[in-house]
Amino acid sequence: MVGFHESGHDGAQQLLPVTSIATAVTMETRERDTVSRGAADIVVDPTLDIYAPVTGTVKRAGTYVLYCEYSDDFAVIEPDDHPGWEVKILHINQVQVRAGDRVEAGLTMIAIGPTPLPFESQVDELSWEPSWPHVHIEVVDPSIPDRPSGPGC
Question: Under a CB-based contact definition with an 8 Å cutoff, are residues 134 and 78 in contact?
């Protein structure tokens, strides 16, 4: 299942569903004032490794704090076919790539599975029980200025 939602970044690009691959839904608004399908939460079997969704170069990768409380891993890839853009992948476990690495779509493993989040997410409400974790993906044009999003942590 793929649950599309508004991204937190103004430069996020509208994503198009490919319904022949998985069930796709556009989830209720998060009141973010960005495009309705600027991010995708892809429900993933927790036993599967995560592979690069695009071919390109890793710009940055590592660990961050989600919602000021939860440890999570991420990777950001600059795709070969859109230089300067960023494909952001969040909620991945034990990231295996670092800045400067070359990755190939569908062939380069970027993480040892999805990160199981310790709370119910919006896509969990729409998927089966027990819920599997999801990987968050968005495509961002960073040349579009992002509005400040609040005080942070």
Answer: no
Category of 142 on φ-ψ map: left (φ > 0), alpha (ψ -120 to 50) or beta: alpha
| 134-140 and 39-43 strand pairing | antiparallel
- Non-local (6+) Cβ contacts of 67 within 8 A are none
Bigger pLDDT: 111 vs 124: 111
Task: Provide the residue ranges of all domains of the chain, joining segments of one domain with +.
Answer: 2-140
Calpha distance 90→13 (Å, rounded):
16
pLDDT above 70: residue 129 = no
H helix and E strand count, the chain = 0, 10
Q: pTM above 0.85? A: yes
Q: What is the CATH number assigned to the segment(s) 2-140? A: 2.70.70
Question: What is the rounded end-to-end Cα distance, in angstroms, of the chain?
Answer: 31
